[in-house]
Amino acid sequence: MSYKAGIFEAISALKDRTGSSSIAIKKHMQANLPKDKKWMNGMYLKALNKAVADGELTKNKGSFKLSAATKTAATKKSKPAATKKKAAPKKKAAPKKKKTAPKKKAAPKKKAVSFYVSCELFIFYHPII
Predict the structure, then answer these.
(1) DSSP 3-state assignment of 65?
(2) In this prediction, what percent of the chain has a pLDDT beyond 90?
(3) Which of 47, 52, 50 is nearest to 62 (CA)?
(4) What is residue 114's predicted lDDT score, i.e. its pLDDT?
(5) What pLDDT does residue 89 have?
(6) What DSSP string runs through 5-17?
(7) How confident is the model at residue 100 (pLDDT cuts 50, 70, 90)?
(8) For residues 50 and 67, what is the distance between their CA atoms, to the nearest angstrom?
(9) How many CB atoms lie within 10 A of CB 39?
């Protein structure tokens, strides 16, 4: 696998909305690197910068995303394979039973405090000097 193909595979596998950092792409590629192949950082950086220069990747701050043209080209390639599948026959949905909402209990009424008691409490907390 070439570095360019590995970069595209890593970005699509990471699925970051804002794009994938070069470090995250590198870690993903190194994890999936064949045992017989040696990692060459210079080749990786060169492939990454060339893809940005060719317009296959877009760079946003420190992140890289697949460009719109690359995404549409990838979907065009995958659509013919998707059309070969036959649609499974649809099953009828079972009728849903209506659930009755449980009745809410009435809130208990507060006991009325007599006016006399409330006046005494007010005077107790607010003494006149």
Answers:
(1) strand
(2) 0
(3) 52
(4) 63
(5) 67
(6) HHHHHHHHHH--S
(7) confident
(8) 13
(9) 11
C-alpha 110/C-alpha 41 separation (Å) is 76
Closest-CA residue to 65 (of 56, 74, 73): 56
Element (H, E) at 70: helix 68-83
Q: Which helix (H) or strand (E) holds 82?
A: helix 68-83
Q: Decide if 6 contacts 32 (C-beta within 8 A).
A: yes
Global pTM reads 0.53
Position with higher pLDDT, 78 vs 66: 66
- Report residue 93's pLDDT band, with 50, 70 and 90 as the boundaries: low
- Check: CB of residue 25 under 8 Å from CB of residue 11: yes
Q: Give the pLDDT score at 112.
A: 59
Contact 44, 33 (CB under 8 A): no
- Residue 104 has φ and ψ, to the nearest 5°, of -80, 140
DSSP 3-state helix, strand, coil percentages of the chain (rounded to 5)? 50, 10, 45
